């Protein structure tokens, strides 16, 4: 990558292509960088959080072997194609306090804080609790690196449900939970569609067989012809990704949307239908990956369901009919339930593998993988579902954070080290200059040997 811009064209970061009542933002291009500010090979870092609920089956989750020579467990087996991009972290104690085990788990998972008093009654006579008492790690990162993009952060969810403290993991500050967007069509509009256009107007455009890309095709081709080869490749990738998502949203538009044309073909189940869970999640992962690749945001989160998730994984097998939370409370001696839980967590690992595949396929302007500049954090509100224990909480990191994280490792800690230390290390990997995070007494500094 040259220090100087291609003299043929220089574009503003605010450049949009307009036509037929629509506008489309362009991805971050080399031609959008000021000449004086351009440094060779400068690739922005990204941070992604993925949450899955109800703990895991630790013997089926934990890898075997040494730090650099390890075998992935049955649950983590779907991540085998990306083993060299992983850091599996075991042996930490996930801090938290207030409410029941699930409440304190999801509230403290990203904040390293306890829950404040509040109106949400916990289960098992645990008393009531409110929101977490501090900012979450992703939002702390967004405060440092999110100012250069149109969205400081992007929060997505899959059937998250009602707005209580079992369903919120991201916090802008104490008592300030951020609501994830559960509707991929609305998320798509927020990221890419016309500012000020109504859903009905966008639907009308699609009904006339004129996508956003069709409407601006001439301008798109003009810009593509005038930029350098690296920018041209990025534009092509941007167009392909948008076209793919647009076509799939047309096919899977949710009937709960006000913009759905009643004359359209029979649509799949609603956003809250149990069996829509995989399809919605796939759309959300596609949107998340495109948002990062287009530099519309550099911080994103994907929340699969919620603490005390009652999703039924019927697509795995006709025999998996129990709700996930109900299964997680079965005793260890119930072999059938343990097997079902293992299969559920393995399915979630396969979803992470899909997301990593999207990030690995996307190319930066210098030809490197988007995944190389990204730090992905997979977390859970519990370690063990039937005891609500937060010991041995399962953590998987992926991506190199621009070289800050040494991957292809399995790190096993002893002594119930606080997970706040891991959060500090995540912040440091993203160039946030901190030595503590969350509740002071729960943090002793960065996690040793991680960075």
Summary of the model, kept short:
The protein has 451 residues and is of the alpha/beta class.
Describe this structure in words.
The protein has two domains: 1-42 and 185-270, no CATH class; 47-182 and 277-442, Alkaline Phosphatase, subunit A (3-Layer(aba) Sandwich), CATH 3.40.720. It is built from twelve helices and 15 strands. It has helices spanning 58-61, 101-109, 137-145, 184-192, 199-207, 212-215, 217-226, 229-251, 277-293, 324-328, 335-361, 420-429, and strands spanning 16-19, 22-25, 46-51, 64-65, 70-71, 86-93, 120-121, 128-129, 154-158, 171-173, 176-177, 299-304, 374-379, 395-398, 409-418. The protein is globular.
Question: What is the strand and helix layout of this fold?
Answer:
Blueprint: E1 16-19, E2 22-25, E3 46-51, H1 58-61, E4 64-65, E5 70-71, E6 86-93, H2 101-109, E7 120-121, E8 128-129, H3 137-145, E9 154-158, E10 171-173, E11 176-177, H4 184-192, H5 199-207, H6 212-215, H7 217-226, H8 229-251, H9 277-293, E12 299-304, H10 324-328, H11 335-361, E13 374-379, E14 395-398, E15 409-418, H12 420-429
Parallel strand pairs: 3-12, 3-13, 6-15, 9-12
Antiparallel strand pairs: 1-2, 4-5, 6-14, 7-8, 10-11, 13-14
Helix pairs in contact: 4-9, 8-9, 9-11
Keyword list:
451 residues, alpha/beta, Alkaline Phosphatase, subunit A, 2 domains, seven-stranded mixed β-sheet, two-stranded antiparallel ribbon, 12 helices, 30% helix, disordered N terminus
Q: Write down the secondary-structure element order.
A: EEEHEEEHEEHEEEHHHHHHEHHEEEH
Q: Which bin fits the share of residues in helices?
A: 25-40%
Q: Mean pLDDT, as a whole number?
A: 83
| Proper CATH architecture of the largest domain | 3-Layer(aba) Sandwich
> Roughly how many Å apart are the termini?
28 Å
Alpha-beta classification: alpha/beta
What name is given to the CATH topology of the largest domain?
Answer: Alkaline Phosphatase, subunit A
By DSSP (H or I, 4+ residues per run), the number of helices equals 12
Main beta sheet strand tally, sense and closure: 7 strands, mixed
Low-confidence stretches: 1-8, 33-41, 194-199, 251-268
For the largest sheet, list the strands in their spatial order: 9-12-3-13-14-6-15
**Overall spatial form:** globular
Gyration radius, rounded:
22 Å
Q: How many beta-strand segments?
A: 15
Number of domains: 2
The proportion of residues in beta strands is: 5-15%
CATH class of the largest domain: Alpha Beta
